[in-house]
Design brief:
The chain has 253 residues and is mainly alpha-helical. It has eleven helices and two strands. Keywords: Oxidoreductase.
Length: 253
């Protein structure tokens, strides 16, 4: 008897939704909050904070976020935390660290992470928590709080990884797929060249090292999941999602 393994799906690009700067910031901060690990006692506050802003968003995006909120409340904090570990820590294609999709766990990862750290510094921010700078919630928080073109460049240059993550989460029937879809709706339309790279990456998965090397990562390999950027934003954050349930961010001195 022959067993067949279903090939990963390549999802169609999401709808392109017109958003102003404030709405885009709100979506990015919402995703930053909800894609971070649901530390005990934090999920309800995060869900409430996002739900309070849904009326400000276009219906196409609001309904996706609302669906995640409904599922998360129904499952509860403990079940969501267990599911989070199952998909993001145990599935190779469900990784929240963007450089993993471009260089994988290879000798090039250290340089790729350093480039992210330098990009954050160029925007006037630095990490205030023990976290890697390519963590998607960190980049989304930077986008929401600063409106800086550096964040746009980081998201655009790693669009293939974001789409592979969306596809993998959909394959896993994870409610987190909706959050990545909402982020994807805020990004420019995918051209055919990018679509082809997405198809290839979905089929092959992230790169793997072909020779034995010692890790060159200049950052902890098992980070604490708390996106925090130190220093106040240059201008008031365009996203209203602030307060105790939101990640703390401030401009570097």
């Amino acid at each position: 008897m022959v067993s067949f393994v279903r090939a990963p799906r390549v999802l169609a690009p999401p709808a392109e939704v017109p958003l102003d700067a404030s709405q885009r910031a709100t979506v990015h901060m919402a995703a930053a909050l909800l894609l971070d690990y649901p530390v005990e006692g934090t999920l309800a506050g995060r869900l409430d904070a996002v739900e309070a802003e849904l009326d400000r968003l276009p219906a196409e995006v609001a309904v996706v976020l609302e669906e995640f909120i409904s599922v998360a409340r129904r499952r509860g904090e403990r079940a969501m935390a267990e599911h989070y570990v199952e998909v993001f820590d145990r599935r190779r294609r469900c990784c929240l660290y963007l450089t993993y999709y471009t260089v994988g766990d290879t000798r090039h990862r250290g340089a790729a992470l350093l480039a992210f750290k330098q990009a954050l510094a160029a925007a006037g921010y630095e990490m205030a928590a023990d976290e890697l700078p390519d963590y998607l919630p960190v980049v989304l928080e930077l986008s929401a709080r600063s409106g800086d073109e550096v964040a746009d460049a980081l998201l655009s240059s790693h669009r293939e990884g974001i789409e592979v993550l969306r596809s993998a989460l959909a394959d896993a029937a994870s409610p987190y797929a909706g959050l990545v879809e909402a982020v994807s709706m805020t990004l420019p339309r995918i051209d055919e060249a990018t679509a082809e790279r997405v198809r290839a990456l979905v089929a092959a998965g992230p790169p793997t090292e072909t020779v034995g090397v010692t890790s060159t990562l200049p950052f902890p390999s098992v980070p604490v999941r708390h996106p925090n950027l130190s220093g106040p934003p240059t201008t008031p954050a365009p996203s209203p999602l602030t307060g105790p349930s939101a990640p703390r961010a401030a401009r570097r001195a």
